[in-house]
C-alpha cells in the first residue's frame, strides 16, 4: 500500500526546526512528505487567503498541513487545492503527539456512578445562595444536591429549601439524622435520606424514600446488619455506606470494610462519602478523587458523596465527573486509565515539550524583525529578537538585561507600557512552566487540565508589515 504524502506549509523561521522533526516522524508514522517554505518570517501570520496565493502543492501530495495558528475560513485553500487541508498543532514540536493521537472510543464518556454533591451548612445560608450553589454543582456534573443540615434542633426552613431545589429541577437528598428534620424534607420532595441507623430506622419506614444505611459504629459495623434487615422487612429501598475514615483514623481498615460489605451483600447498592479524604488531606483533590472513583468502579459502588468546602477541593465535582467516565471506560474495557483523560492532569503536563538550546540559538540568529519571542528552555526564560538573545532563570534579570540592551541603557524604542506588561505576563507564565514542568508556548494558556482558562491572542495578530511578509 502506497504511503500518504503530506505537504507541510511553514515560514522561514520555522523551516529548520520542522526539518529536524519530520524525518524521524515520517518513518515512525509512515508517510512521505514535502515542505513548502513560504515567503514569510512568522508562519503564525499566514492566512488561508494569503497561503492560497503562494502555495505550490506537488502532484503526489495527499494532504496539506498548515500551521495551527493560521486562523480563518479554509475555503480559499479548498477552492484551489483538491486534496484535504488541515491545521496542524500550533507548536511544531507537538507534531509527534498530533500524529500519534488516537480518537477516543465512541463509547467513552459513559458512566454509572452518581455524584451526590453536598451543600454544607444550609441553615446558615440564604435561599438564593443555596440555589446558586446548586446550579453550579449541577452544571459541574452533580446528579443530586444534598442539603447539609447541622446537629441540634430541627431546621424549620428545610422544607422551603428542598421545595425550591426541586422546583429548580434538582434531585435532592437530605443530610440529617433527625426525623423531625427529615420528614418535612421528604414531604417537600427529597428522594434520598443520609443517613439511617438504629437511632432513626423506625421512622424511616414511614418516609417512603430511599435511605443510606450506616453502622452505629464504623469501626465495628455495629448493628449494620440489623438495620438493613429491619429496612428490608419494611420495604425501604437502601444504599449501604460503611463510612470512609480519614487517614490516621482508620482509612485502610475502612476500605477493607467496603470490600467486606460487598462480599456479604453482592447485589445491594452502596455509597461512599469521599469528602473525608479530599477535605481532610493536604493534597490536591483530583488524584484522590480519581483513585477513589476507581475503587468504587471496581467494587460496584454506584454513588459517591462529595463536597467542595476547602480550597484545594474546590473543583471536586468536576473532577469526579471526569474520573467516573475515565474509570468506567478503564474497568469496562480492562485497560489502564492512562492517555484517556487529560482534564485530570492539572499540576504538571502529560508530556514536557520545550526547544533545545541549539534551536533557540539558531532561531535568534535568523530573526530579522524586532518582535520578541519568549521560550522556556533548559531551566531559563529566553527572550529573542533581532540581534538579541537574553536568558536567565529570573525574568526580572531578563527584563534588566533588556533595559541595558537599549541605547543609553534605556528600554528599546519599540517597547511601550502595554508591550512591557505583555512581556512580563508571558515571562511569568514561562517561569511557572519551568517551575512545574509544564510546556510553555508563547501567547497560549498553560494547560491546567479542567481548570484551564482560555486566553485571547495578544501578540500573534494578523499583520501585513513588510518585515513579516514579502
Layout of helices and strands:
Elements: E1 5-10, H1 15-29, E2 32-37, H2 48-54, E3 63-66, H3 75-80, E4 85-87, H4 95-100, E5 114-119, H5 127-140, E6 144-148, H6 158-167, E7 171-175, H7 179-187, E8 192-196, H8 201-204, E9 210-213, H9 224-233, E10 238-240, H10 251-264, E11 269-273, H11 275-278, H12 285-299, E12 303-306, H13 316-333, H14 357-366, E13 373-377, E14 380-385, E15 388-392, H15 395-405, H16 417-436
Parallel strand pairs: 1-2, 1-3, 3-4, 5-6, 5-12, 6-7, 7-8, 8-9, 9-10, 10-11, 11-12
Antiparallel strand pairs: 13-14, 14-15
The pLDDT mean sits at 92
The figure for the number of domains is 3
Total of helices = 16
Q: Can you list the strand order of the major beta sheet?
A: 5-6-7-8-9-10-11-12
Report the principal-axis shape: elongated
Number of strands: 15
Category by helix and strand content: alpha/beta
N→C terminal distance: 40 Å
- How would a crystallographer describe the biggest sheet? 8 strands, parallel, barrel
Any low-confidence stretches, pLDDT <50, length ≥5?
460-470
Tell me what portion of residues adopts beta-strand conformation: 15-25%
Structure commentary:
This protein has 470 residues and is of the alpha/beta class. It has three domains: 5-100, 3-Layer(aba) Sandwich (Rossmann fold); 114-344, Dihydropteroate synthase-like (TIM Barrel), CATH 3.20.20; 357-451, no CATH class. It contains 16 helices and 15 strands. Strand 1 (5-10), helix 1 and strand 2 (32-37) form a beta-alpha-beta unit. Helix 5 (127-140) packs across helix 6, helix 6 runs parallel beside helix 7 and helix 12 crosses helix 13 (316-333). The longest helix is centred in the last third of the chain and has 20 residues, at 417-436. The protein starts with a strand and ends in a 34-residue tail after the last helix. Residues 460-470 have low confidence and may be disordered.
Amino acid at each position: 500500500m502506497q504511503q500518504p504524502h503530506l505537504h507541510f506549509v511553514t515560514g522561514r523561521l520555522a523551516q529548520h526546526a520542522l526539518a529536524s522533526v519530520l524525518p524521524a516522524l515520517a518513518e515512525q508514522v509512515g508517510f512521505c512528505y514535502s515542505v513548502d517554505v513560504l515567503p514569510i518570517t512568522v508562519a503564525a501570520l499566514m492566512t488561508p487567503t494569503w497561503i492560497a496565493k503562494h502555495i505550490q502543492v506537488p502532484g503526489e501530495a495527499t494532504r496539506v498541513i498548515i500551521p495551527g495558528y493560521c486562523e480563518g475560513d479554509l475555503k480559499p485553500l479548498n477552492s484551489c487545492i483538491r486534496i484535504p487541508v488541515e491545521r496542524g498543532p500550533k507548536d511544531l514540536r507537538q507534531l509527534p503527539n498530533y500524529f500519534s493521537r488516537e480518537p477516543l472510543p465512541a463509547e467513552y464518556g459513559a458512566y454509572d456512578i452518581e455524584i451526590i454533591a453536598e451543600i454544607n451548612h444550609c441553615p446558615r445560608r440564604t435561599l438564593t445562595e443555596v440555589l446558586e450553589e446548586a446550579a453550579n454543582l449541577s452544571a459541574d456534573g452533580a446528579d443530586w444536591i444534598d442539603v447539609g443540615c447541622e446537629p441540634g434542633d430541627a431546621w424549620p426552613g428545610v422544607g422551603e429549601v428542598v421545595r425550591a431545589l426541586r422546583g429548580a429541577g434538582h434531585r435532592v437528598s437530605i443530610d440529617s439524622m433527625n426525623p423531625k428534620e427529615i420528614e418535612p424534607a421528604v414531604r417537600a420532595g427529597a428522594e434520598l435520606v443520609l443517613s439511617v441507623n438504629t437511632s432513626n430506622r423506625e421512622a424511616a419506614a414511614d418516609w417512603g424514600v430511599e435511605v443510606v444505611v450506616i453502622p452505629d459504629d464504623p469501626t465495628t459495623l455495629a448493628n449494620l446488619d440489623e438495620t438493613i434487615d429491619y429496612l428490608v422487612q419494611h420495604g425501604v429501598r437502601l444504599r449501604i455506606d460503611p463510612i470512609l475514615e480519614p487517614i490516621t483514623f482508620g482509612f485502610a481498615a475502612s476500605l477493607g470494610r467496603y470490600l467486606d460489605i460487598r462480599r456479604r451483600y453482592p447485589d445491594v447498592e452502596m455509597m461512599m462519602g469521599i469528602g473525608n479524604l479530599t477535605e481532610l488531606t493536604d493534597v490536591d483533590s483530583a488524584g484522590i478523587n480519581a483513585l477513589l472513583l476507581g475503587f468504587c468502579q471496581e467494587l460496584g459502588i454506584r454513588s459517591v458523596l462529595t463536597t467542595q468546602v476547602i480550597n484545594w477541593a474546590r473543583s471536586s465535582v468536576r473532577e469526579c465527573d471526569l474520573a467516573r467516565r475515565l474509570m468506567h471506560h478503564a474497568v469496562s474495557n480492562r485497560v489502564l486509565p492512562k492517555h484517556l483523560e487529560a482534564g485530570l492532569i492539572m499540576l504538571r503536563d502529560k508530556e514536557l515539550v520545550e526547544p533545545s538550546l541549539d534551536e533557540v540559538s539558531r532561531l535568534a540568529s535568523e530573526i530579522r524583525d524586532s518582535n520578541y519571542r519568549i521560550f522556556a528552555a533548559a531551566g531559563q526564560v529566553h527572550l529573542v529578537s533581532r540581534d538579541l538573545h537574553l536568558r536567565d532563570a529570573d525574568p526580572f534579570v531578563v527584563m534588566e538585561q533588556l533595559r541595558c540592551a537599549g541605547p543609553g541603557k534605556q528600554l528599546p524604542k519599540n517597547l511601550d507600557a502595554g508591550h512591557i506588561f505583555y512581556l512580563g505576563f508571558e515571562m511569568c507564565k514561562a517561569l511557572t512552566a519551568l517551575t512545574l514542568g509544564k510546556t510553555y508556548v508563547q501567547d497560549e494558556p498553560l494547560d491546567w487540565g479542567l481548570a484551564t482558562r482560555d486566553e485571547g491572542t495578544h501578540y500573534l495578530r494578523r499583520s501585513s508589515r513588510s518585515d513579516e511578509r514579502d
